[in-house]
Amino acid sequence: MKTIMKRIAALVLIAAMAVMAVAGCSKSSGSKSAGNKSADTMFGLVKEAQALEKKTVEVSAEINTNGVKASVTLNGKSDGKATSVGATVTYGGVTFSLDDVIVFTDDVLYINAGLILEQIKPFINTAGEKAASVVEAFNHELNRLHVPVYLEQEVLDLFPDKYGFRIKTVQTSYTCRNVIVASGLLAASKLGSDGSMFSVIKELGHRFVPVLPALCGFYAKGIQFSKVAGVRCDANLTLKIDGDTATTEHGELQLTDYGISGIPVFQISSPAVRALYEKKTVAVAIDFLPEISSEMLCTEFALRMERSKTEEKADRLLSGLLNQKLMPVLLKYAGIHPNEMLENITSERMERLSAGIHDCQVTLEKVRDFEFAQVCTGGIRTEEIDEKTLESRLLSGLYFAGEILDVDGICGGYNLQWAWSSGFVAGCSVS
């Protein structure tokens, strides 16, 4: 929504600048107040227009924000008596017109910011801010090119014949010269990626790297996860495989009743799940206070000890530093009972607590199921695919695109980009 409002505001600003540019070129004969006209009519900008009488307004401006190009053209003619000036807006490759954006009265020029907002906001909402708009855009292009689309066609078999390929479905069969397989793997099975094409592809001679869930959470042990379920906190995560550091990520960690989740967990999920599959020991070291060094934390503990009152308890050491649900769990991890008297906590035990906060070790037991995974790691071995065309090296005319191949990325749109880019390459190769 913030992005939408920024784009709308930018378009309004363009129109306002255009109006001011026109008004600024004229000689003014004095200022007249518009009173409450602005509030009554939702006209956002008021300018003198006496000198613009019988003048033509032709102003255009462009904007490029967040990679989205838009242009506004204002044009019309004023006779000084309530003449309207329309605007033409080009956004996202679509051009549409707005009437009565600018209105001339006796001596005042208004820009109707409210109308611009009203007309552009729904367009942006439907055209650029929803996932469904991607499907809609592809459907429009398919319709324009008169490409037949057959849905709900479960593929039973795919094999080469003298015409190219034969595709057998539950309903019928199809003959074609080339085939692009973009069936996905096992993530988001409700969308059709249920693995039903695996056996068909294997029959054609292709091999799979084991398919595993990725960009998902893990079941873990090491702390009382049931006590901290729902806690979100900024943390550093270090993935360790058989004791060796594999990678480090930073971000908002989500603690759940089963283990760990959140963006930094998703980022390390691919190597972690692969290591679990290979029966390796997989652990994650969590730094719950990455912005505070161990030395600074121990100093803070010592100050709190000095300032403490009689009969204060150990949780006083962490008050205000960590989530309240997390404090007793980390105290216990360091061997300190939350109700233990603060005066009994030695400097050595405070150092142990600091170490536990900065290096809390949890062991990953298993990955969550495919239904919770955003993507999969694994797929058709890439050495069996021509990297320039995505055509099978085993069977001419057979192409692959998207997640079905052994290619996966971290969070940030990389997997979507791979789907679109690989589809583009395969399509261009066939054509």
Structure description:
There is one protein chain. By secondary structure, the protein is of the alpha+beta class. It has 3 domains: 2-132, no CATH class; 155-214 and 373-430, FAD/NAD(P)-binding domain; 222-367, no CATH class. Helix content is 31%, strand content 29%. It has 11 helices and 19 strands. It has helices at residues 2-24, 37-41, 113-128, 132-144, 198-203, 225-228, 263-277, 294-307, 326-333, 347-358, 414-430; strands spanning 45-48, 56-65, 68-77, 84-91, 94-104, 108-111, 155-161, 164-169, 173-176, 179-181, 208-214, 218-221, 232-241, 244-255, 259-261, 282-287, 360-367, 375-380, 398-400. The strands form 5 sheets. The protein has a 6-stranded antiparallel sheet with strand order 1-6-5-4-3-2. The protein has a 6-stranded antiparallel beta barrel with strand order 12-15-14-13-16-17. Helix 8 packs across helix 10. The longest helix is centred in the N-terminal third of the chain and has 23 residues, at 2-24. The chain is elongated and about 90 Å long. The chain starts with a helix and ends with a helix.
Task: State the main characteristics.
alpha+beta, six-stranded antiparallel beta sheet, 3 domains, 431 residues, disordered N terminus, FAD/NAD(P)-binding domain, 11 helices
